[in-house]
Amino acid sequence: MTLTGPTYSNAPDSLITHWEKRRAPLGFSKGENLAGLDTDLAALTTKNLADPPNPLPDNASRHRAKEHELRRELAGQSELVLLHGMTVSHLRKRSFPAHTPDLFYKIWVDHCDYLLGTLNTRWLISAAITFGEYGKTESEKSLGRELGMLFSMMKLYEFERLHSGKTPDDAFGLRRVEAELPLGMSPFSLASGGLDINLLAPLWQRATDERVMGALACALLDRLNSDQGGIFRRINAMRTKKQARIAARTKDERKE
User: Fold this and answer.
1) What residues contact 182, with CB distance under 8 A and at least 6 apart?
2) What global pTM score does this model have?
């Protein structure tokens, strides 16, 4: 089925309205709050989360509901991992306790190595996106936003690609349909194009210069580079195959 007209009706207003609905603050009930900046973060690394709690009461606050959700998701991990998750969750909303950005930053300054060795990739990406909004420097914010865009677009594309019937590590063949790229974009040269490298190299270079979020950015890019699936791995496999085919054809022509 081919859709006509705009992809999103009444954009950008309809998109912004939908986005804003998802940004409602995680309100507190009386007596609830987010841990303060004076919290002993090191002690939290030694306290494992208890088994998932019982069902929430119907009148539970949105803050408590989110904490309940994360306690289930992160069961067996530490209280610091939970607190990190709660700071990220609050910072995605329109408003939050005033100290939340500083608390998020303090967790990364004081316990970067611990988080890199503990958090899964999903949470590392969420942390990078949070740096994009609440980093302490413009370079940090810029790097976080670009990493967020990179991994968010990858997630969309990789999800859509699953409907092709191919697994993430299964590269397409070299045959392709003759069609124009969307928006009139110029074609990508599989054998000699460097768009993938031009995307990744500047990010990696800048990551090595960042004092706080640099280790996080490098860890994400390392994971991307090591993963057996994904568009960059598949493009590289296709490029290698294409270059080998060109080399073989050139060799045959020289023999003639």
Assistant:
1) none
2) 0.92
With CA atoms as reference, report the closest residue to 103 among 123, 82, 119, 72.
82
Digit-coded pLDDT (tens) for 214-249: 999 999 999 999 999 999 999 999 999 999 988 888
Q: Are 77 and 48 in contact (CB under 8 A)?
A: yes
201's CB contacts (< 8 A; 6+ apart) are none
Instruction: Find where tokens 């609440």 sit.
Output: 134
- The Cα–Cα gap between 209 and 206 comes to 5
Hey, what are 226's tokens? Answer: 């090591």
d(CA 83, CA 116): 15
Q: What angle do helix axes 195-207 and 231-255 make, rounded to 10 degrees?
A: 130
Q: Per residue in 22-31, pLDDT tens?
A: 999 999 999 9
Query: How far lies 168's CA from each of 92, 219, 235, in Å?
Result: 29, 21, 12
